[in-house]
Amino acid sequence: MADQNPETLLEFPCDFPIKIMGARVDEFAQVVVDVVRKHAPDFDPATVQMRPSSKGNYISLTCTVRAVSKAQLDALYGELSGHPLVKVVL
User: Fold this and answer.
1) CATH number of domain containing 68
2) 20 to 30 A from 61, CA-CA: which of 10, 26, 80, 82?
3) 3-state secondary structure string, 19-48?
4) Which of 3, 79, 9 lies closest to 38 in space, CA to CA?
5) Residue 9 lies in a domain
6) What is the pLDDT of residues 9-60, one digit of tens each?
7) Residue 34 sits in which domain range?
8) Quick check: is 68 in a domain?
């Protein structure tokens, strides 16, 4: 029987996209990449997708990580959500 976790519908490992939105400042992308790589060391920063908001005040980054556990994703979401430059994590 496959490893079943009643807390999540995800099957690990899996590719998991995370969207991070924040103010459009020079260091935002590097800060996000540094946090993501801390939790997913194999993450390739070249795969980050960036999109500015319609007025250009904010930027969203989509980082697709190879998730290995719910605990890994929870820790990553927690650290990103707690960062002062980050407004929203989806």
Assistant:
1) 3.30.70.260
2) 10
3) EEEEECCCCHHHHHHHHHHHHCCCCCHHHC
4) 79
5) no
6) 889 999 999 999 999 999 999 999 999 999 999 999 999 999 999 999 999 9
7) 14-89
8) yes
